[in-house]
TrEMBL record, chains A, B:
Keywords: Glycosyltransferase, Ligase, Phosphoprotein, Pyridine nucleotide biosynthesis, Transferase. It comes from Dietzia lutea. InterPro entries: Aldolase_TIM, NAPRTase_N, Nic_PRibTrfase-Fam, Nic_PRibTrfase_pncB, Nicotinate_pribotase-like_C. Its EC number is 6.3.4.21. One of its GO terms (cellular component) is cytosol. Catalyzes the first step in the biosynthesis of NAD from nicotinic acid, the ATP-dependent synthesis of beta-nicotinate D-ribonucleotide from nicotinate and 5-phospho-D-ribose 1-phosphate. This is Nicotinate phosphoribosyltransferase. It catalyses: 5-phospho-alpha-D-ribose 1-diphosphate + nicotinate + ATP + H2O = nicotinate beta-D-ribonucleotide + ADP + phosphate + diphosphate. Pathway: Cofactor biosynthesis; NAD(+) biosynthesis; nicotinate D-ribonucleotide from nicotinate: step 1/1. Transiently phosphorylated on a His residue during the reaction cycle. Phosphorylation strongly increases the affinity for substrates and increases the rate of nicotinate D-ribonucleotide production. Dephosphorylation regenerates the low-affinity form of the enzyme, leading to product release.
Amino acid sequence: MTSTTTSPVTPGSGRPSTALLTDKYELTMIQAALADGTADRPCVFEVFARRLPAGRRYGVVGGTGRLLERLADFRFDDEEIDALADSLDERTADWLRAFRFTGDVDGYPEGELFFPGSPVLSIRGGFAECVVLETLVLSVLNHDSAIASAAARMNWAADGRPIIEMGSRRTHEEAAVAAARVAYLTGFDATSNVEATRRHGVPSAGTSAHSFTLLHTGPDGPDEAAAFRSQVRALGVGTTLLVDTYDITAGVETAIEVAGPELGGVRIDSGDLGVLARQVRDQLDSLGAYNTRIVVSGDLDEYAIAALRAEPVDVYGVGTKLVTGSGAPTAGMVYKLVEVDGIPVAKRSAHKESLPGAKRAIRLHRRTGTAVEEVLLPFSAEAPEENGLEKRELVIPLIRGGEIVSGLPTLEESRAHHSSVMVSLPWEGLALSEGDPAIPVRVVPPEALPGA
Amino acid sequence: MTSTTTSPVTPGSGRPSTALLTDKYELTMIQAALADGTADRPCVFEVFARRLPAGRRYGVVGGTGRLLERLADFRFDDEEIDALADSLDERTADWLRAFRFTGDVDGYPEGELFFPGSPVLSIRGGFAECVVLETLVLSVLNHDSAIASAAARMNWAADGRPIIEMGSRRTHEEAAVAAARVAYLTGFDATSNVEATRRHGVPSAGTSAHSFTLLHTGPDGPDEAAAFRSQVRALGVGTTLLVDTYDITAGVETAIEVAGPELGGVRIDSGDLGVLARQVRDQLDSLGAYNTRIVVSGDLDEYAIAALRAEPVDVYGVGTKLVTGSGAPTAGMVYKLVEVDGIPVAKRSAHKESLPGAKRAIRLHRRTGTAVEEVLLPFSAEAPEENGLEKRELVIPLIRGGEIVSGLPTLEESRAHHSSVMVSLPWEGLALSEGDPAIPVRVVPPEALPGA
């Protein structure tokens, strides 16, 4: 969860340092910059995505809260310095040992939408203290935002029906925890991942796998009823029984025989889920189990979820496609130097241009709440008046003088914020089909502002 | 690196516990199994992929060594038990507190190839002690094998030219370390990730980013030469200068002016890399910099690498596509109960069949070394004679009675093993184009064996 108390970004948490989760070139650049006297030049770096993944109409910022926690553990202790001893000179080692981020960070609050060029995070400080954070910042935001962006589409497709995140086994074990966190951020109801519950307070869910049914096999063959009886005895009649280990119709019959019509739910994890959901609903109703919920799982993505909208499905379980970003496993964000000593700078090579100068962003909304445009302004400029449109500031302060700002949104607050911004999108921007970004992004150059 | 000393799988390393990197249903199943007396039934679980990702012809086992390290930290201390207190009964909490894996694990050595159905890992022990490891086992193997499988194709495409892994910023910060490790396993030369060097001994690489060139901007504009001078002074003339911040031709000229014709390398990170590599090679040669290497990077995947084979490229830098598995971010491995108390078991639902019974695997090779077939046998069966073909056992013991077997392959040894198995594939199995698995997998049922 996002920290709500003021705390130094660096050091002393007792947790393992995150400082080596870093590309080597950051350290070699610092070495060169220390030697040539440029290490402390005031700089602004900006994190943004040049484009959205193919066909996507919006992205969702995920990971900001988690990033602040990881930055709080970014320090070079003796262990880290020793590991780097071969590749760095003494001066650089000393600088790293004394490192403590002293600058400012601003960014979009977690759960906010982003579009091509949106300045999702701005980092201001000396060159060296900013560049050293590059990899960690990008790793967290690229991963978490990719998952959040896919999750938001799944939530939209589910149209109010609950989704349980169950993808831990399909991704790196630590990425799984982060994925569960941002799935919850975008509206998922629960996760199977126990660590996500401990670490981030995400509600947990989980009952049983096919192996539990298969475990109840004896010399006389399978005994599905024994498995169901055991589960109901241990977890109560409100549990969800997995009915597709052998024959689904027989499984449902056995489930209700064992648990009675007050059984909480049945889960179907294979086959044509739409057809099966209808059959199982009819069967459950015919057995008087009108309130027994149907949980479906098995390689669901946003399209499969949407295709099941007309079927009697009560809960979706989503795994692989969630944790792999449903075809877009990384958000494509970059960390670019945009200003040095007040001078706007930018790379000029082909297809990798960035917009020079530190920026902030506002979103324009109609009185009805519908978003119509995102506007990027020079960081310190007043937003120009926009006829009849409401202006909403998108960037909030996250770190000031190296201290995490107090009162930042909690995960629950970010979840509520995400929900509110999703309803502000024009309806065509929410479609799952391929298309342009849901709203255009307009860049206001300094010379276009009043008084320029 | 893979542990080479005998050590208990559970507890007491001093490192944080990995036990909550687990799906909740494993714990609820244990609760039910403890209550009904089935928790200690002897079981065999098997890890395998039902199919390869679309179009892929082989998979590479990655993560086994890392998994054994993570299993060594799998224990339920007070902290973990407290976190679970709300959802588990006293008996289950006691069982978890006392948990220590006592069973056996066998598997394919890291770097080995796998095909649909290959029993990549077998876990034998009581039901509860085996099922509790399910999520962690799958998370590590699915992630690391997905990256290893993509990396192997990239190495093949590079045809002997070195590749540097630089994808940390595009994936979860911990997944990045694991990705760098398996990229090295499959033949990559180095990584940008500093933690992968510390933790796994992967050689490191990295010089500078565009921000370093942009940093050298003053009131009079950009000063690329100053940036290059600074880098050469700090890192020596063998360094690699990034020449595409402004104009590549001017950048190359400046680089050789500053560093002289003994400059180690130049890097191009944007544009049409093939065309640019030829132009830059000509320019370098005309400046007498015959030995200055050309490093190319920028969204390279195995196809782009192969397309550059005819160009004067000396080193590839690969990021995004490596860490996201180049279109296949997870290996699709599952963890299935295949035997209970000596009785073969299997789920029977549509499209998710598994082969009942514990298995091991051999690969048949021609005398020339070319692999022709993989054969799955009942775990304890003798392999039948195969006319004129050499048999190679694929499965090695990893854990015995809860202790990690001593003398397991190190990462360097696994890297050499991988290299040797790649050359055993029939040449058409190595193609990047879509196709069937490189070799067929044949299942020998118990009744087909001599003496059955």
